[in-house]
Amino acid sequence: xxxxxxxxxxxxxxxxxxxxxxxxxxxxxxxxxxxxxxxxxxxxxxxxxxxxxxxxxxxxxxxxxxxxxxxxxxxxxxxxxxxxxxxxxxxxxxxxxxxxxxxxxxxxxxxxxxxxxxxxxxxxxxxxxxxxxxxxxxxxxxxxxxxxxxxxxxxxxxxxxxxxxxxxxxxxxxxxxxxxxxxxxxxxxxxxxxxxxxxxxxxxxxxxxxxxxxxxxxxxxxxxxxxxxxxxxxxxxxxxxxxxxxxxxxxxxxxxxxxxxxxxxxxxxxxxxxxxxxxxxxxxxxxxxxxxxxxxxxxxxxxxxxxxxxxxxxxxxxxxx
Length: 321
Known about the structure:
The protein folds into 3 domains: 2-55, Winged helix-like DNA-binding domain superfamily/Winged helix DNA-binding domain (Arc Repressor Mutant, subunit A), CATH 1.10.10.10; 64-264, 2-Layer Sandwich (BirA Bifunctional Protein, domain 2); 269-317, Roll (SH3 type barrels). The chain contains 10 helices and 14 strands. The protein has helices spanning 2-8, 16-23, 27-41, 64-72, 87-96, 141-144, 147-161, 223-227, 233-254, 260-265, and strands at residues 45-48, 52-55, 77-84, 103-110, 129-137, 167-170, 174-177, 180-191, 197-205, 273-277, 282-290, 296-300, 304-308, 314-317.
């Protein structure tokens, strides 16, 4: 399927005879594959008698060759999938089968992408980045402290390198651009967090996704909308890998405290009134940053500083801000 998509990715017309010759299949087989692309992958095709087939617009596909060269510099193995339920779920399966970390999973599409708090993550094929890095952590809580915020910094810098200028961080795991969500992070653990464990770092970035492709219950944007052109997904995935390696290495050597000032400098809600939902209660306060462990610092009722951390917390900006 990917070979056919790669031939069509330029947005030009290709005849069924031409496509069949390159792929080594019959014209009727090409026709069946094109029907699958439309039905299963929700990809729009134009058909013109005498000219052939073309995509409604060009697409950017991932490149195993390019990404594996980048990852080899860090000793990271690449697993590129056409479609998975989720890259994080695939990571768990690879670990259970004995695959040694560190490794990266990239997918062209997901059928059951997941965000924080069990939410669905929109994952249309060949449009976004679906990326998971798996690392072995052997220094217990110290190796995990503030890690999700460090990953956020890494993704932010990768987006800026790709040309997204007006981006910043929202505690704990989101990246926004022009007030709209552009990327999210989901960290999961397997093993003993107090001793030796694996951390599964899932990253989703809205890249070339069309508004008509999905329904999302909050304002969102894409790299394409921010830079005004089709974004190169493979290049962006490589930017993410390079940035992750840099920031995770700094975190491993110096801890989150060495990156705390940089995180706060990119905190979009610094000094703003927020409401924190903890599941059982809501806490209103002024966002005054994060502590040396990456926990949220809220000034509650104008006088008491309180710290919060945990995977099930949700922070919202108050309308007054």
